[in-house]
Amino acid sequence: MGTVRLMHHPVLLVATVARHNARYFAGRPYGPRLWRHPHIHGANLGVAAAPYLAAGGFPALAHGEDRALVAALERLSCRILRTDECPVRTSGRLDPRAPQGFGTFLRQLSIEIAPPTDASRRRKRDISS
Questions:
Q1: pLDDT at 79
Q2: In angstroms, rounded to a whole number, what is the distance separating the alpha carbons of residues 80 and 71?
Q3: DSSP collapsed to 3 states, the chain
Q4: Measured distance CA(85)–CA(34) in Å, rounded
Q5: Can you state the angle between helices 14-24 and 102-113, rounded to 10 degrees?
Q6: Burial class of residue 109, CB neighbours in 10 A (0-12, 13-18, 19+)
Q7: Which of 1, 4, 104, 107 could cysteine-pair with 96, CB 3.0–4.6 Å?
Q8: Does pLDDT of 108 surpass 70?
Q9: Are the C-beta atoms of 55 and 72 separated by less than 8 Å?
Q10: pLDDT tens track for 12-68
Q11: What is the pLDDT of residue 40?
Q12: Cβ partners under 8 Å of residue 8, min gap 6
């Protein structure tokens, strides 16, 4: 299981990338040591045929099928390599194709850091008055 790096996207704010990277790389050891990261990305997941079939393959879920497959492999005590040695670039778009996918996560990060609009400032002022 590998990691991902965000590709540039016109609506992806630098602050959103910074927040993503701060969370994503938390706990990563300094220097060239192996990082057994906690991430599971269907975009960077490779499984040999025999363990894949033994685990039942990707379950028919609306979302989270990559996590479910890895959990099944772990229950079977399959050897799992978690590495940052071969990251893939993934889209930084905020209009997700999968409702619970990575784009939704990025959109939520961007909402958390978005500067308040004049309308939201007025609402806060009205509430506190």
A1: 94
A2: 11
A3: CCCEEECCCCCCCHHHHHHHHHHHCCCCCCCCCCCCCCCCCHHHCCCCHHHHHHCCCCCCCCCCHHHHHHHHHHHCCCCCCCCCCCCEEECCCCCCCCCCCHHHHHHHHHHHHCCCCHHHHHHHHHHHC
A4: 9
A5: 110
A6: buried
A7: 104
A8: yes
A9: yes
A10: 889 999 999 999 999 898 877 788 899 999 889 999 999 999 999 999 998 899 999
A11: 94
A12: 92
Q: Are 19 and 112 in contact (CB under 8 A)?
A: yes
β-pair partners for 6: 90
Residues whose CB falls within 8 Å of the CB of residue 99, separated by 6 or more in sequence, listed in order: 62, 63
CB burial readout 54-64, b (16+ within 10 A) else e: ebeeeeeeeee
51 Cβ neighbours under 8 A, 6+ residues apart: 73, 76, 78
| AA identity, residue 69 | L
Q: Which amino acid, residue 98?
A: A
For residue 45, which amino acid is it? L
